[in-house]
Design goal:
With 191 residues, the chain is α+β, with helices and mostly antiparallel strands. It has one domain. It contains seven helices and eight strands. The longest helix has 13 residues. The chain starts with 24 loop residues before the first strand and ends in an 18-residue tail after the last helix.
Length: 191
């Protein structure tokens, strides 16, 4: 989340509950390990939606906040959990935010989709900090690589963006996932 965030009109989470499973939450009022489903997730979404914790009230994936993502990018439909990224952006970009494309469905199928490749080409060629990531095993940090590399620009120039994305995916699949420890305790909603 970032200051001044607004929601794209006409979009709602619907039945999507990816954010109830994938991310780690380590706040004083609520904790959930990464990859664990929140115990409040019901068949139709959050069972405590009206009284959900503040951290949940304040979180929206980039599909809800960044207009460039079309309706088909809803995470449960696309297999991509897009998030605004504020960490790890090289100073050369001259900006503080980028986009992380976390593959939560079938990663190989997703990177072979034309709509996904077109998005990556647009982001890389317009110097938007763009990351590709995979969730780690339960309780571990995700794997993440920057897509704005000479290798990816070369793959794009050769018309081989699929090959560039598959190479990035190979790096992510070979990742040494690190445990994501918790600093808070008291209300763990992990199942």
């Amino acid at each position: 989340m970032w200051d001044g965030m607004t929601l794209v009109p006409g979009r709602d989470c619907g039945g999507c509950t990816v954010c109830c499973t994938v991310p780690r939450i380590d706040q004083p009022d609520i904790q959930k390990v990464s990859g664990a489903t929140c115990r409040h997730r019901g068949a139709q979404g959050c069972a405590v939606y009206e009284t959900r914790p503040q951290v949940c009230r304040g979180f929206y994936c980039a599909w809800r906040t960044v207009e460039i993502f079309g309706d088909g990018w809803r995470p449960d439909l696309s297999g991509v959990f897009p998030q605004v990224e504020t960490r790890g952006i090289p100073p050369a970009f001259g900006m503080e935010t980028g986009i992380d494309l976390m593959l939560v469905g079938n990663p190989l199928k997703t990177v072979r989709q034309r709509w996904f490749q077109d998005f990556v080409v647009t982001g890389v060629m317009n110097a938007i900090p763009l990351f590709l990531s995979l969730p780690g095993p339960r309780g571990h940090h995700a794997a993440q690589v920057l897509l704005n590399t000479e290798q990816m620009r070369g793959a794009i120039a050769r018309g081989a963006v699929k090959d560039g994305l598959e190479a990035a995916l190979k790096i992510l699949r070979g990742w040494d996932f690190q445990p994501a420890g918790m600093t808070h305790a008291g209300y763990d909603v992990s199942t």
